[in-house]
Amino acid sequence: MNEKKRILTGIRPTGKLHLGHYFGAVCNWVKLQNEYHSFFEIADVQGLTDNFSNPEKIRINVREVTIDLLSLGINPEISTIFIQSTIPEIAELTVFYSNLVTMSRLYRNPTVKTEIKQKKELFGNSGESVTYGFVGYPVSQAADITAFEGACVPVGEDQLPLIEQTREIVHKFNSIYGDTLMMPEPVLSNNPRIKGLDGNEKMGKSLGNAIYLSDSKEEIEKKIMGAVTDPNKIKKDDPANPEVCMVYYYHQLLNNQNLETVCTECKQGKRGCVACKKELIQVMMEFLKPIKEKRHYYESHPEEVDQILKDGNKKARAISKQVMEKVKKNMQIDYFEQEQ
C-alpha cells in the first residue's frame, strides 16, 4: 500500500471565515484530508505582517478561525491544526532562505506585486507602507511548507507563483547543501473565487460583502435583502436576467433544489426580487444549520479547541525539529549537537 503524502496549507487569522473561504478553499481541504496526511497552519506570524500594530486582532482570531475550520469539517482525528508561531523552526528556516532570494526576485513575484500595488493605492505611494516582512512573506511560506516536508500544497491558480518561489528556494538550497529539502508540488483546486453580495468578483473581509459562518439569522437576512439584483428589473413583474443577479448566483452556489423554477420564473417576470431573496435566506439558513451547530459546540467547549491546538502544535513541532536537524547538519552549523 502506498504511503499517504503529506499536505500543508495555511490560513491567516485576520478575521472569521466566510462563505468565500469555504467554497473557495476549505471544502476542498475537507476532501483532501481523507487522501493525505493533512497539516493546516494558522499563520499568525504572516497575519502580523500587515497587522503588526494590532496583535490582539490576530490572537482573538486564532481561536475563531480554528473553530470555523472544525465547524466546516476539518477533523482533528485525522488532520493536524497548529499555530505557526509555536514552531520556531519556521522562523529559523525563513532566515536561512532569505540568503537565497534577492529582493528583485521577490518584487517580481506576481502575487507580491499585486498586493503591493493594492497597499500603495490604499496608503499612498510611499514605499514606507510596505514592510520587509510583507515583501518577504513568500520566503516565510517556503519555510512553512518545507519545515513539514509538505509534498503537496493545495492552491488556486493565482497562488502558483508562491509555490514556484518555494520550488526555486528548495532547488537552490539543495544545490548548495545537498539533497536536504523535499520539492513540493501544487495541488490545483478547481474551486472558483466566490463573488460578494455586491457583485464584486471577490468576497472579502474588507469589502463588507461577505456572509460569515458566525453571522446571526438577522445579519444574514439583512445582507441578503441588500444583495445586488438585475438593475434593469424595475417592477416586480418585469422579466429579468438571472445571470447578472447575485441572489440567483447564491441559489446556484447552494445548489437550491428549486433552482430551475427560480431561473424560469425570473426570466418570465413571475418572481419578485423580495420573494426570491426570502427563499435564498431559507436555503442559506438550512445550509448553515449543521455548521452553526458545530460552531456553537466548540464555542461552548473552548478547552477542547485549546487541546486540539496544543496536540497539533506538538505533532507539528516534532516533524519540524527532525527537518531542522537535517538542515543544520548539511549547512554545517550543527555545533555540539552530538553531545545533547
What this model shows, in words?
The longest helix has 30 residues. The radius of gyration is 23 Å and the shape is elongated. With 340 residues, the protein is mainly alpha-helical.
Question: Characteristics of this structure?
Answer:
mainly alpha, 5 strands, 3-stranded parallel sheet, two-stranded parallel sheet, single chain, 340 residues
Care to give the gist of this entry?
With 340 residues, this protein is mostly helical. The chain has helices at residues 19-32, 44-47, 55-72, 88-98, 103-108, 110-123, 132-135, 137-147, 160-177, 217-225, 246-253, 259-268, 273-300, 302-331, and strands at 6-11, 37-42, 79-83, 152-155, 185-188. It has a three-stranded parallel sheet with strand order 1-2-3. It has a two-stranded parallel ribbon with strand order 4-5.
**Largest sheet strand order:** 1-2-3
Radius of gyration: 23 Å
Q: What structural class results from the helix and strand content?
A: mainly alpha
Runs in which pLDDT lies below 50 for 5 or more consecutive residues are none
Q: Quick check: average pLDDT?
A: 91
Q: How many separate helices?
A: 14
Q: What does the secondary structure layout of this molecule look like, with pairings?
A:
Layout: E1 6-11, H1 19-32, E2 37-42, H2 44-47, H3 55-72, E3 79-83, H4 88-98, H5 103-108, H6 110-123, H7 132-135, H8 137-147, E4 152-155, H9 160-177, E5 185-188, H10 217-225, H11 246-253, H12 259-268, H13 273-300, H14 302-331
Helix pairs in contact: 3-13, 4-8, 4-14, 8-9, 10-13, 11-13
